Amino acid sequence: MQNYDLVVIGGGPAGMAAALKAAECGVESIVVLERAETLGGILEQCIHTGFGLHYFGEELSGPEYASRFIELFKDTNIDIKLDTMVINVEPDEGKNIITAVSKAEGLVDYCAKAVILAMGCRERPRGALNIAGTRPAGIMTAGTAQKYVNIDGYMPGKKVVILGSGDIGLIMARRMTFEGAEVKVVCELMPYSSGLQRNIVQCLEDFNIPLRLSCTVIKIHGKDHLEGVTIANVDENRRPIMETAEYIECDTLLLSVGLIPENELSRSAGLQIDNITSGPIVNQDRETEFRGIFACGNVLHVHDLVDYVTGESQIAGAGAAKYIKGLADNDPEYINTKGINGVRYIVPQRINLNGDEDVKLYFRVGQVYRKANVKVTCGDVVISNKKKPKLAPGEMENVVIKQEQYKDFDRNSEIVIEIVEG
Hints:
The protein contains eight helices and 28 strands. The protein is α/β, with parallel strands linked by helices. It has three domains: 1-122 and 259-328, FAD/NAD(P)-binding domain (3-Layer(bba) Sandwich), CATH 3.50.50; 125-257, FAD/NAD(P)-binding domain; 332-422, Sandwich (Immunoglobulin-like), CATH 2.60.40. α3 crosses α4 (167-178) and α4 (167-178) packs parallel to α5. The mean pLDDT is 95.
């Protein structure tokens, strides 16, 4: 048994930021457990720029962004265990048991006062999609193709169709074009893109790559290797309109159809999971319903910018430090948050009324809105009502609740965020 004040599971941008913040707040005994052979997580294969604009005020590539934080570890006493896979978390207030396995140490149990879950997310695979056809080579997630091209130096194909307009898919449309491939089309099932607007412009429009909304792949052709796909427009119920079916010759189909938080450990530990985010339910310190267990980053909810991951993870690190040092509120009074009328989810899902800081609520909408108001209420009290020129599912929004506002709220009420059109 190895004893630590804090165990951080995951060494990507979330885990690094959380561990560094906890150390800054005075936690002396910290270990980061990372299953890969390097710190940095997915940032290592994201060689495009666009990272750090909010946090550092400059444009960095993914590896550059990660290296800024990796360098900071040299001035700390934080232990780093790479190539180490966590297989179980057993919550027990003040003495949580984390079981991990590695080539160097074998099977090891860690005992920690607090745990931060920062395992990130994974891509939704073809198995989650209902596409007719065979299973030839040439079909992969956009992230897998990104690793092949940017890390391994392999070219997946020359004639490409991309299904889904998530940010990784948009970025890979541009990347494959740079490497000489022909990206025939990006198909999106929904009537709007799920990626950032800047990526639509910089990755598709700037390279004349067509984006077809309300369109999907309905059949895959080829036996040993992909030969082509059939695409078709869909109706308002997302059913294919067969008379619009069109065959496109291609040797590669990239899937960019959503990200899923890596919460197998969270579920096996018994944490309450939000049905919409697929991440744990947390308070403003990013603490779950189990005292001393925190979650942050894409394991909590999928972010569109790594800068936001960093900010949220620092909240979790500070919260864990407060808990470890005995400064956390031992008698919290919670009020829930709720999204209605177009708001799909809110994080955090509950607020401790005894908190001493302002709370930023992050949320996403379920469709595109133009010139709509974001209204925030608690009972009969209107906290804010601000007009937004545009709201889109691909871009996370936030509102701030002042401490002097929420401290007097009725614990039996809830904070509601809704979209008011017109």
